[in-house]
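My current task is to audit a protein record that another person submitted. Alongside the sequence sits a line of tokens, each denoting a local backbone shape. Where you disagree with what is written, explain briefly why. This is what I was given:
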Amino acid sequence: MGTPANPQKYVVHNAPSQIDGTGAFAGEAIPARRKIGEIRGETISVHEAWERVKHVERIMMIEISPRRAVDASRSSDPLRFTNHSCTPNAVLRIRQGRIEIYAMRDISPGEEITCNYGETHHEGGMRCQCGAPNCVGKL
């Protein structure tokens, strides 16, 4: 069995983020409405995901269905570092069990790629640091 195809459609680099920790940054111009790439990881039950997040500070867990989640903490995909923003430039979509990220507008080289996380396990208990003018203040 060969190496799986690279799910990244555009160059994305990881670097320190002004939002939080490490971020995902466009390494080239990304046109609006284009798939940037995917986030892969270990597929586990949602129950197991909730158990794992109790023991880590930096969470890279995405629920893909009411019963399944993906733990991207050991993934090499650069988009796993996509930070939250209340004014995102990308959207995360779950399609056939795959976690895909699409540009909502043109993204310039060097610009941080962000998504709106929506509901999170933080349940409003974590301060949002996106800095957007319309920031809701919490995740």
